[in-house]
Fold this protein.
Amino acid sequence: ARAIDKLIQTWRCQFPGATFNVAIEQSKGPLITALLKYEDVIIYPINPAALANYRKAFAHGGGKNDPADAQLLAEYLQHYLDKLRPLRQDEPLTRELAALAEDRRRLVDQRTAHCLELKAVLKRYFPEVLRLKAAKLNADFVIRFLVKYPTLAEAQRAGASRLRKFFYGVGARNNVEDRVSMLMEAIPLTEDAALLRSCARRATALCKLIQSYNRQIDRYDGEIKTMVQQHADYPIVASLPAGSYATRCRLIAALGDDRSRFPKAESLQAASGIAPLTTQSGRQRFVSSRWACSKFMKQTFHEFAGLTITRCRWSAAYYKLQRSRGKSAQMAKRALAYKWQSIIYRCWQDRVPYDEAQYLQRLQATGSPLIALMET
């Protein structure tokens, strides 16, 4: 920080009253964080793919180094400044919500990885746990059961009465008798003492980690619920058929505060990677998925579309229509997300909540085939 500040002060002495344009191949990171506090520094994020193609015009052999790239960045900024967009920070609340949403998802993904590892371990020595019929392996009663009874032998030594009392105590009241009977009547998969001890040790360690993830994710959920309702755009996302506060938080983070960032709905659809990519040359035309996008943003709208299938009549009808045309489940959800983005974009730009009754009237007025599908 001291070296960066010294550099900025040197620039200011050399060029009093000037504005300094900085091109850099990233939109976040320590250098971005350091430069954002200077009002006379304007940051222009450069797509690494754009610079790579620009470099190929002068370095046909494919060689590269940092000093040469710095020179190319300066030239790129000088020649194409009118085509570049400066980095604009969202409001503090929006940025914090975006960080909460991304960090929460990262924790969920890490917990999922540990759950998959735990499942693999249980299959080696204690597969009966997988027959407890929990909705997810990270369910509280499953994790607490494994911490208390890491092996089948220990569970059976506890006896039916204690097992029954345990399940009632942790709130797992459904199918208690079936679970207890299954555990008491089970035959060990292996009698290898070394394997049992090592697997039980590993399973316990994973359970402790999963418990920690569960607590932290709950903490994130609580903060998201409190903070997202304070955002100015919350009435818009709350009117959409997206159930959880986490989903609403992710939508706010995806849209941001800068309404000039996306001049039209197609810009949002392309930036999020939901819109397909068309490549045409002569009579050849190819349509493929768009990979050059924010994966988290794409995931947000894709998952949102999937949630609306069970919460919105026309969404269910549209999904059914796409499936009837031979689209896969994921393709149908992307098509639905594309349609939802047009609606969300209009609501966001006009700052008005989504009104499903009004949209259904629009579908009727235009003779949409979705109306007939909703009536069947």
Remarks:
- The longest helix spans residues 193-228.
- Strands lie at 20-24, 41-45, 277-281, 284-288.
- The longest strand covers residues 20-24.
